[in-house]
Please model this.
Amino acid sequence: MSLSELDTSLFFIINKGLQNSLFDSLMPFITKRGLLFCLPFLIWAGVKERRNIIPYILLSAIAVGIADGSGNILKHAFERVRPCHALEGVNLLVGCGKAFSLPSNHAANGFAFALTFWPLRRKVLTYGCVSLAAAVAFSRVYIGVHYPGDVIAGAAVGAAAAALALFLYRWLMKIYPGKCYHSKGSNPDAEERY
Model:
């Protein structure tokens, strides 16, 4: 079985095999607004980290921009047709869209956003937002607009964008150690506390 055939088989297992009325109602909502559920985690982390959270919120916006731009470039490089345009019998729950399929920008943006907060060492924030990013990625397959390979590739693009944003931030901290926006005595690489 080729990778393309495996991807198509996994697509139908998720899109048709897991089909149920609860997911049919829930997944379109998650695909559009799932990452909004990160707000309580961000507020909680903001209380715990105070000024430390602000640079990471800015970094997450930069990482999402990198992921989204990279995803669009890759879509046009690969030109993979969405399953809702290419396959018969897809359980399509939203509009199919005209853009290409690989990678999923929803997955890329979600993981770029979530993984940027990794250095804060707040398990609730990190695991909560990563779980929501994974739910958004899963929803893209369930609603019929992406193959599983698309969302895996999107997650990889998002992780790379988050790593790049964090690398640039650490590089700037080394060049301008007194200028970066960190509260006195804080250490983004401190041991996990919560």
Q: What stands out?
A: The chain has one domain: 3-175. Confidence is low (pLDDT under 50) at residues 190-194. Residues 3-175 form a domain with the Vanadium-containing Chloroperoxidase; domain 2 fold (CATH 1.10.606.20). The chain is about 65% helix and 0% strand.
